[in-house]
Amino acid sequence: MKNRGIRLAAAQEAAQRDPGYASQYYGRRSRLAGLRSGLGDWTSFGGEVPGLVDMAPGRDQGGGAGGGGGGGKGTTSLFILSEDNCIRKHTRFIIEWPPFEYAVLLTIIANCVVLALEEHLPKSDKTILAQKLEATEIYFLGIFCVEASLKILALGFVLHRGSYLRNIWNIMDFFVVVTG
């Protein structure tokens, strides 16, 4: 309350020195009051809301979840790696590199083929082929863990636009890796 009185007194003093200031101050104040009450018109501000503080770098500043795209400028990955970090740049290059994407796709297809060849026999008996195919599971899991780790390092985990868990396919991928 005391601060409001001081600001009001400062505004009145400024209005006495410059008559144009009063209309600017009171107009701005009423628009912000309307905005805070939920009745304000966002378009009257021309896309910006004067007097409001910008969010800290690394925080989501609105918008929807992007597809596989990157986050906004100033975002961090895991609260550690900034956009211009060497590790993050290289991991982003790797996950966007077409041969990497094809390799992951081929790994998924190979894993599906291995699962399709699996035979369920009574009393947990296994054929020689089933035993060999079962040994490949650890390799598939390792490849999928590496892929998820690289994507989390490059995109961030969940807090900002374009992060790993803001993509529905990555959510499914993460679920498969965690349950594997």
UniProtKB/TrEMBL annotation:
Tell where it localizes: Membrane
User: Looking at the UniProt record for this protein, which Gene Ontology cellular component terms does it annotate, in alphabetical order?
Assistant: synapse; voltage-gated calcium channel complex
Query: Which InterPro entries does the entry link to?
Result: Ion_trans_dom, VDCC_alpha-1_subunit, Volt_channel_dom_sf
MF annotations from Gene Ontology: high voltage-gated calcium channel activity
TM segment ranges: 99-118, 138-159
Main localization is membrane
Q: Which UniProt keywords apply?
A: Calcium, Calcium channel, Calcium transport, Glycoprotein, Ion channel, Ion transport, Membrane, Transmembrane, Transmembrane helix, Transport, Voltage-gated channel
| One BP annotation, GO | chemical synaptic transmission
Q: Which residues form the Ion transport domain?
A: 98-179
Report membrane topology: Multi-pass membrane protein
PANTHER family the record matches: VOLTAGE-DEPENDENT CALCIUM CHANNEL TYPE A SUBUNIT ALPHA-1
Q: What is this protein called?
A: Voltage-dependent calcium channel type a subunit alpha-1-like protein
Q: Whose protein is this, by species?
A: Lasius niger (Black garden ant)
Lineage, highest ranks first: Eukaryota, Metazoa, Ecdysozoa, Arthropoda, Hexapoda
